[in-house]
Design a protein that fits this description.
Chain A is of the alpha/beta class. Helices cover 39% and strands 15% of the residues of chain A. Chain A is elongated, with a radius of gyration of 26 Å. In chain B, the strands form three sheets. In chain B, strands 3-2-1-4-5-6 form a six-stranded parallel β-sheet, with helices on both faces. The chains are: A alpha/beta (385), B alpha/beta (407).
Chain lengths: 385, 407
């Protein structure tokens, strides 16, 4: 994220390369230090140097590099031969961000952990799964604990930078992945904090202390859609009736009479009266049935786009490739071509989700080859002399 | 001690979690965040003003604990933007603010007369960060979203589920959290730029691409190798590890997550589980374990189902195998000494709700620690502080505006 925002990020690796370079998937399934797509995803736009921190010379190199840096990001407040306190004594403006599974000083430091175990222990997995609780809770794909902690790492660095911009003073920022996950579980956390109520997982919808109505529909093409927020206003119900009629589905839904009732009322429907007032309950149940019926008769993507254009917020459950290739995503400039001369290819990367009017993000350089920028270490050594 | 952002004032028109979650972080680091809410709808544009959880049988816009959680440390004013005087008041507030934040549907603020062009006229170096599902440009700019829709159309729901069945999805508005974090980043990055150059800007954040960015390896698998991904349950993405799953334990709805990163860790797992069948040659290599993953998971699950989740997790971790109980809210919130030590869940006293715990910020900063000491504002709680003390209006004007629905 910092590289996306224009920072010159230099990733320091051991001579054998970061262990992330060995993570699948690989270009054309052939492993290699410069072929890991996991590595590419997290390191595009950076530079790479290799330093053997187990040697005195390596530790010296690392210290020299840190002396040129505004921000250090590491897995602790120290690494071989170099630590925050020593560096900060030389450079009071240094910002050092430690990102570790349980935070600095934890009794669990050094315990084995992966994305799966962090998300399981930190809260998100508890929320995710099916109404049938004999099925296991589910961990979503994509190394999300790293994304969560990575975002907080960027924020910690930028908060510290804001302070330094005004005071000249750096600091140590300690990011705990476990803590970050614990405050990334939405209402499950505050239902417990305030009422000691436990939210339970429910298929395709929010975990909640009590069961809620299903919102996902299997569409005509076998893909799913999520039906979103129920209508409230009279014109919404009229619009829903019109859509049913256009699709020739009115006869299939006897409950459509309740939609007519709602369309002709003087006031919008009060959602808080669901389950309290019979007419309100019947209207909203009919609306839900109508949307589910329509969704079941259209391909998911068509349902999503048509429904949104008609003013009913909903979404198609798209696989990542279809999400990425969607016309809107492309129109937002999210397809970023990045030349990979070493492969003789130009590869399309995901761009950034935000557009800065004054400081637009530039297309990044491809992820660095292992040790590609080691010459900068020589330059540093030269300067030292 | 001065907060890292105590020089920053935010005119905050945002709400829900996706917006309020961002300005909560800014407030915790010292920014003066002034939430502007609509008196006509009693602030209910932010749905959390009208929803629970509630601590007792009382209901109302000042009683939702979710709203309180996301808005601690902020000031609250009511301004009716439909009225000329309300517009003037908002202009006055913007003119002394560094940042304007909002997460209305695209175009809403512009229609109210406060698009970026107008904001710049009021305050040339203003930083304006907007945050909505599809952003302010592109063919879907008028589409509306909330967390589960964003997760659906970005690929996150699709990749969270058991194979060949309905997607499970994320079970909460994951992308409300993540877009709040992107929004925070946008504000901080734009502030850094302004402090160096004097130049403000508009940052147009779109949550759906933010969701796709959460799956960047999956995207590259498509653009580089032409392969799509499918929901794989709890198996490792791209066959990176096996076993890698969430297995049942003794008791109701008790589960353990276990991942073996290499053959050695698998060997240790086999010893801890003490199931001879797992020592079979057919599980010797990662490739073999991936091929026989169904059998492997069934064998492991049969053993774990007889074990206590916490004790088994302890045994595995002690032996060097990544493992964790799928922790319930009380286990992870109340029984974690690290979170306790960092004070991750501070208490605030709300004038109506009373004393409740809220979520803090998962960062420890040695020089500028975050502080959360005050509850979320009641609707219009700080009208006097902001409109009289800060903007210099009189008590009489305040009373008049209140009577006429301007505030």
């Amino acid at each position: 994220m910092l590289a996306e925002l224009g920072a010159d990020v230099i990733v320091v690796e051991p001579p054998t390369g970061s262990t992330h370079r060995a993570r699948p998937p690989f270009v054309e399934d052939r492993p290699g230090a410069d072929r890991s797509l996991r590595w590419w995803a997290g390191n595009v736009g950076k530079r790479s140097v290799t330093i053997d921190v187990l040697t005195d010379a390596g530790q010296r190199q690392l210290a020299e590099l840190i002396a040129t840096a505004d921000i250090v990001i590491a897995g602790s407040d120290r690494c071989e031969g170099v630590d925050y306190d020593t560096c900060a004594a030389r450079d009071a403006g240094l910002i050092w961000v430690s990102v570790s599974p349980f935070g600095l000083g934890s009794a669990r430091s050094g315990q084995p952990a992966t994305d799966l175990t962090m998300l399981a222990g930190g809260g998100p997995v508890w929320n995710c799964g099916y109404d049938d609780r004999t099925l296991p809770p589910v961990r979503g794909a994509g190394d999300q604990s790293a994304n969560i902690a990575g975002m907080y790492c960027a924020i910690g660095a930028l908060v510290a930078l804001a302070h330094r911009d005004r005071s000249g003073q750096g600091q140590l920022v300690d990011v705990s992945v476990n803590a970050a996950c614990n405050v990334t579980s939405e209402q499950t956390t505050y239902h417990w904090l305030v009422n000691r109520h436990i939210c339970l997982r429910q298929t395709g919808r929010h975990a909640y202390p009590t069961p809620s109505a299903p919102v996902q529909v299997r569409c005509a093409d076998g893909h799913y859609a999520t039906t979103g927020v129920l209508p409230r206003k009279q014109e919404d119900f009229a619009g829903l009736l019109a859509w049913l009629a256009e699709l020739g589905l009115t006869e299939e839904l006897p409950e459509a009479v309740f939609l007519e009732l709602a369309a002709n009322r003087d006031e919008p429907v009060d959602l808080s009266l669901i389950g309290v007032d019979d007419e309100t309950t019947a209207i909203l149940s009919a609306a839900r049935d109508a949307i589910r019926l329509i969704a079941s008769r259209l391909p998911a993507k068509e349902f999503f786009v048509t429904s949104q254009r008609r003013g009913f917020p909903c979404g198609a459950v798209l696989p990542p490739n279809e999400a990425f290739d969607d016309e809107h995503t492309v129109a937002r400039g999210f397809h970023v071509p990045v030349p990979h001369p070493e492969l003789g290819r130009t590869i399309t990367y995901p761009g950034t989700p935000y557009l800065f009017s004054a400081t637009p993000t530039a297309a990044p350089n491809r992820p660095p080859l292992l040790g590609e920028h080691n010459a900068l270490l020589d330059d540093l050594a030269e300067q030292q002399r | 001690m001065t907060g890292a952002l105590s020089h920053v004032r935010v005119c905050d028109l945002s709400g829900q979690l996706a917006g309020a979650g961002a300005t909560k972080i800014l407030a915790a680091f010292g920014a003066e965040v002034i939430r502007v809410e609509d008196p006509v709808t009693r602030g209910l544009w932010d749905a959390l003003r009208g929803t629970g959880p509630y601590v007792d049988d009382r209901r109302g816009v000042n009683l939702g604990a979710g709203f309180n959680n996301h808005n601690v440390g902020k000031y609250g004013v009511t301004i009716n933007m439909r009225t000329p005087e309300g517009k003037d008041l908002l202009r006055e507030l913007i003119s002394i603010s560094d940042v304007v934040t909002e997460n209305f549907a695209a175009g809403v603020l512009e229609k109210r007369g406060f698009g970026y062009t107008e904001l710049r006229k009021i305050k040339p170096d203003i930083i304006y960060v907007s945050n909505c599902g599809f952003g302010h440009t592109g063919p879907y700019r008028d589409f509306k979203t909330w967390g589960p829709i964003v997760q659906a159309v970005s690929g996150l729901t699709y990749t969270a589920g058991l194979p060949d069945t309905e997607p499970a999805g994320w079970g909460f508005s994951y992308m409300d959290h993540m877009s709040a974090l992107y929004m925070t980043t946008a504000v901080l990055a734009a502030l850094h730029h302004r402090d160096r150059t004097g130049e403000g800007q508009h940052v147009d954040l779109a949550t759906v691409p933010a969701g796709i960015a959460m799956l960047s390896t999956e995207v590259l698998e498509w653009t580089v190798n032409g392969r799509t991904v499918t929901a794989g349950g709890n198996r490792a993405d791209f066959g990176e590890m096996a076993p890698h799953g969430i297995y049942p334990c003794a008791g109701e709805d008790r589960w353990i997550a276990v991942a073996c990163r290499d053959d050695r860790e698998f060997g240790v797992l086999v010893k801890v589980l003490n199931e001879p069948e797992l020592s079979s040659d057919r599980f010797a290599t990662l490739e073999q374990r991936l091929d026989a993953a169904d059998d492997l998971d069934a064998l492991i699950g049969a053993v774990t189902a007889t074990r206590d989740a916490a004790a088994l997790a302890d045994d595995l971790i002690a032996a060097g195998v990544p493992a964790s109980v799928v922790k319930s809210p009380p286990e992870r919130i109340d029984d974690d000494p690290d979170l306790d030590a960092m004070g991750l869940f501070p208490s605030v006293t709300h004038p109506d709700i009373g004393e409740v715990r809220v979520e803090g910020i998962p960062l420890r900063c040695s020089q500028t620690p975050w502080r959360i000491t005050t509850a979320a504002p009641r609707l219009g709680q700080h009208n006097r502080e902001v409109l009289v003390d800060l903007l210099g209006h009189t008590e009489a004007e305040l009373d008049d505006w209140a009577q006429r629905g301007v505030i």
